[in-house]
Amino acid sequence: MRGVAVVLCLLLAGCSGFAATDPGAETPTVTAVPLEGAATPTGGGTLAPGVTEEGVTSPLLLARAHAVAVETREHSFVHQWRVAYANGTVRGEVRQRAAVVPDGAFTANLSVRGRTGIVGNRPTVAEFWSNGTEMVERARTTQLDGNTTVRYIYLPSEQYAGGSGFYNSLRRPKPWLDLYVVFASVDAKIAARQAGDRPGQTVYLFEATDVTEPDALAAATGFADPRNLTLVGAVTDEGAVRGYRLTFDATLDGEPVEVTRDVRYDFRDVTVERPEWYETAINESIGGSRGSVPSP
Predict the structure, then answer these.
(1) Within a domain: residue 219?
(2) Per the domain annotation, does 292 fall within a domain?
(3) CA 14 → CA 4, 7, 22, 233, 245, distances in Å?
(4) Is 236 part of a structural domain of the chain?
(5) 215 phi and psi angles, rounded to 5 deg
(6) pLDDT (tens digit, 9 = 90+) per residue, 25-48?
(7) What would the pLDDT profile of 235-256 be if each residue is shown by its tens digit?
(8) What single DSSP character describes residue 249?
(9) Superkingdom of this entry's organism (predicted)?
(10) pLDDT 10s digits, 136-170
């Protein structure tokens, strides 16, 4: 139950364990809190789209319900993935924070360190802004000599295509596909329930402790032989996934690694303001490029 308690702290009490910061910053330590009044459900009634008291029974229905929530409501999104070797040394880490509104406008910050296959494996902080029709990016990369290089990209409306292509996944990963892959690879059970932050809302805490479809998870993540998995998270009765923590062991380039992924959605009013470097991005854009910072 400790893992579920940590998730409750992170997703419902506003802990800052998933904060996206400088690539070299340490990950904060999260303290577990007790689950007051939590009870394990029994029976087989429907709790949320794709979720019954037996667990997640339809990953597709749940993923679709979550997609509706993030496409129609203002929200912030925080995502962190971390790959470490067996001795604990970090191989690579990506942290992402975004604020999104339903009309397609967003701001995002993405930081990279270690061997990630992104921007030449150099520490990078990339910032994005879009009003739903055009997009600008500023990427600052620390080179081997210690100097920082800055590059800009401007995508006018005809290239950005309303965020329907490559760059859309930077700040809002295909929400139904992203969740579908996770839940289709495990057997997630309901561990507890808790009152939500809106009147009458119920939040269900789920967990899984095994990979049931290792080939699907491997194909989706790029890590071979996923095993020793733990998944804990929370979903509302509307089917909006508030967040989850996924950890598993795997093999990458012939070496054993541990993969950790933290995701949090906060459905609240957000501010999306055009950055002060907008004009610079237009004037100094490298142009004709999809950029060098793909979705983590």
Answers:
(1) yes
(2) no
(3) 15, 10, 20, 14, 15
(4) yes
(5) -65, -40
(6) 443 333 333 334 334 444 457 899
(7) 999 999 999 999 999 999 999 9
(8) E
(9) Archaea
(10) 999 998 888 889 999 999 988 887 766 555 445 44
